[in-house]
Design goal:
By secondary structure, the chain is an all-alpha fold. It has 4 helices and no strands.
Length: 71
């Protein structure tokens, strides 16, 4: 909730992509893959931080592999 408040109060902060990634991670570890994918896709599309973008793409690939395994 504190992360979401930071994003709401300071949408232009340099911390927003980092805390957004952390929110995606929390969805990932609780196996809420749909919400995690939404977050990681947003980061991969929108962030200017190369390292964070690559981490998000790696998570997207991992989630897609997990979901393929459930089919």
């Amino acid at each position: 909730r504190e992360y979401e408040q930071l994003i709401k109060d300071s949408p232009d902060s340099e911390l927003v992509p980092i805390v957004t990634f952390d929110i995606g991670e929390s969805y990932y570890v609780t196996k809420d893959y749909k919400n995690a994918l939404d977050i990681f896709n947003k980061i991969a599309r929108d962030t200017s931080f190369d390292g964070l973008r690559e981490k998000a793409k790696n998570r997207i690939n991992g989630i897609e592999e997990i979901l393929r395994g459930k089919e």
